[in-house]
Write a structure and sequence with these properties.
Helix 1 packs antiparallel against helix 4, helix 4 packs antiparallel against helix 5 and helix 5 runs antiparallel to helix 6. The protein is built from 6 helices and no strands. It is mainly α. The chain is elongated.
């Protein structure tokens, strides 16, 4: 029986596809709130939205920027993961993207803590897809190192 060249291929592809899906939802889903940001803080619709959600205008802007950035990072990581999953020679790129995903989650947690709406369970939920991705990337990285 032939040993698989890229042991993390399947996990990385699945993680990449999940990140692509989530990235699309985040990047394009933020468009609704982004339209509120573009109206400005004095618009009546914006004021009503802020009052309903107990937010300030700066919190609205920060949350929209974070969601948009997260969406772009997830899309990029998803593309890299799906395209590079079977290539152990590019495992370093996938591990780097996994690190970027985790850094984005940490940044999001910090922003959430600053605005006082921190929920430890949400950190676990936010790390699920990056963890799957990173597991596949690390398996490929280990296979790359074993080849040397």
């Amino acid at each position: 029986m032939l040993k698989k060249q890229a042991p993390g291929e399947t996990i990385l592809k699945v993680g990449g596809m999940l990140l692509l899906f989530l990235g699309v939802l985040l990047a394009f889903g933020s468009g609704n709130n982004l339209s509120l940001v573009m109206k400005g803080s004095s618009d009546s619709a914006v004021v009503e939205y802020l009052n309903q959600n107990g937010m300030t205008y700066s919190q609205l802007v920060a949350s929209n920027v974070m969601v948009l950035v997260a969406g772009v990072i997830y899309l990029a990581a998803g593309v890299v993961g799906v395209k590079q999953a079977g290539k152990v020679e590019n495992a370093g790129l996938c591990v780097g993207m996994g690190g970027l995903l985790i850094a984005e989650v940490v940044a999001e947690v910090i922003v959430t803590m600053i605005f006082g709406d921190f929920d430890p369970a949400s950190v676990i939920r936010m790390l699920m897809f990056p963890a799957i991705y990173m597991m596949g990337a690390v398996l490929n990285w280990q296979a790359k190192k074993a080849r040397r």
